[in-house]
Design brief:
With 329 residues, this protein is of the alpha+beta class. 24% of the residues lie in helices and 22% in strands. The protein is built from eight helices and 16 strands.
Length: 329
Amino acid sequence: MIKSHSFAYLLACATLGAGLMTVSTPASAGLRDAFGSRASAQEQSKAGQAEIPVCSKPLGTIAVIEPEDVVNWWTGQQLPAPSRLIKVFVSKSKCFTLVDRGVGLAASQAERALAADGELRGRSNVGKGQMRAADYVLIPDLISQNSDAGGSAIGGLISGLVGSKAGSVASGLNLRSKTADVTLSLTDVRSSEQVAVVEGNSKKTDLSWGARGSLFGGGGLGGMGVGGYANTEIGQVITLAYLQAYTNLVAELGGLSGNPAASNVSQAVTMLKPGRLLANAKGTGAAVRSLEPGMLLYPTGVKEGAMWEVEDEMGNKGWVNSTLMELAR
């Protein structure tokens, strides 16, 4: 977890510390290091502009969804769901390839159903095996939520940990003082590991240091269909909090390979036919053991032609012809 600091400090830190991304801010151009040897954090915040980080290459594909059992705090403020705001960040940053797991997916599934029923024209090229997998799932949320009926504050005190990175944190969204404390949690689809949990926070006074022009103008969020996030004060405060969290997230993930499918453990395979676990890829020497249909094996990633090196559930390692196996479902 990246500890909470001022929005401008973290923006400068992410700009100078993450080689993968570049953030164009006037204040960062002349700084020697992330700690402001030429300018203090306060001076940076006065001179800076809030900018969405831009990456030189994507870190993988991502789906943005709402948390389960969420309190729809945004509807009372006439704001779109926060996932729509985060999707704008993702699209503009080029740090991830965005895949739709909402309305767009439902529409595409309906189209695929038409294809399966033979209703589409020939050569429409719509069918199985074309949909791109999400490497990560990103969930935007307030740091905490409760059922405060007064409407002045949405949030509370979290005791314990969020994942393994966040400690006890207060607040969430205070509508009277116009402060926002938010989180972004990123989960690896293949391993189900929570890769990152980052916080962002902002307050009304953060709007005074030049964030309005570049971020909320027509060239920024103003023309991206996120409504009140761009043109209301509380919406702008929430936007800055999520932008801080997203900037922290990109900086924290800058060391990833950019190929999550290859970086993860290989998918398990199932034996289709009886076979043998061989001592080497050439098949010479005594077999390690016999293999029965339905047995699960775990590829190591080493291959020689059609022969794959695998391990069984007892830890035995050997070689099997890939024609005798299929990917486990």
